[in-house]
Amino acid sequence: MKKNTRTTQSIPRAQSRMAGFTILETLVAIAILIVAITGPLAIVAQALRASYFSRDQITAYYLAQEAIEYIRNTRDTLGAGQGSNGADWLSTLVDENGAQVAINTVGSDQNKLYLVRAGGLYQLMRCDTGLECPPVTLNTNVSDEALYGEDTITDDSIFIREIILTKPVVGISSDGYSVETDAQAELRELVVVVNVKWRMQNGQYSSGVTLREHLTNWQLAQ
Fold it and tell me: Which of 173, 186, 175 is nearest to 214 (CA)?
């Protein structure tokens, strides 16, 4: 009888040990599973952030290029009939009030502009002095596309575009001997700098995209 009693008492202890090992193994398995899932998820999240950044960077590049192409087109079309040999070509760059926009001196960005689109036509607008330009507007109320820069039925986008027109650095003239004065240099060249930055998912603005173009007054050579 004693022998049977000892046997029956040892069975629950063995089962208890087995149950304890099962719980431990389950916890280890869960920990391994969590580690195995967390790694790929972190990689996917990083890849998504990179893709969003690339998408916004490409959009910013095209917005900057659009502004440069507008100014170049203005030079080529309206500037063709301005003054003798196109000497007044800069007068074609006007703001929303029809006044010629201010050209910054070298190293200054006090006078900033932004570009809007109304009725299929583009127009330069002055930014408030000392402040950054307003966000580029976005019109999604069109079929199969979204238009940036519209001034009607729009919302603010995540992009800010600033256009800075600067005088060229005064240097040796085209003959290679004399030094150009400011007036002579301005007749020959205009430096266009466009900065486009965007608001990221964390609410901060990126360093943005900057394009720089030197537009020359090709009519002076005629």
Answer: 186
Is the Cβ–Cβ distance between 201 and 49 less than 8 Å? yes
- E strands, the chain, are 113-118, 121-126, 135-139, 147-148, 155-166, 189-198, 209-216
Measure the CA–CA gap between 105 and 147, rounded to whole angstroms: 33
Q: Which two tokens stand for residue 132?
A: 């950054």
Q: Model pTM?
A: 0.74
- Which tokens go with 204? 């901060």
What is residue 15's predicted lDDT score, i.e. its pLDDT? Answer: 53
CA 15 remoteness from chain centre: 66
Share the mean pLDDT of the chain: 80
Rounded Cα distance between 177 and 107, Å, is 26
Most confident of 20-24, 60-64, 148-152: 60-64
Segments making up each domain of the chain, as ranges = 43-221
Instruction: Give the side-chain half-sphere CA count within 13 A for 40.
Output: 4
Contacts of residue 103, Cβ cutoff 8 Å, sequence gap at least 6: 90, 111, 165, 166, 167, 186, 190
Rounded Cα distance between 208 and 199, Å, is 9
Round to whole Å and give the CA distance between 75 and 192: 12
Confidence band of 19 (pLDDT split at 50, 70, 90) = low
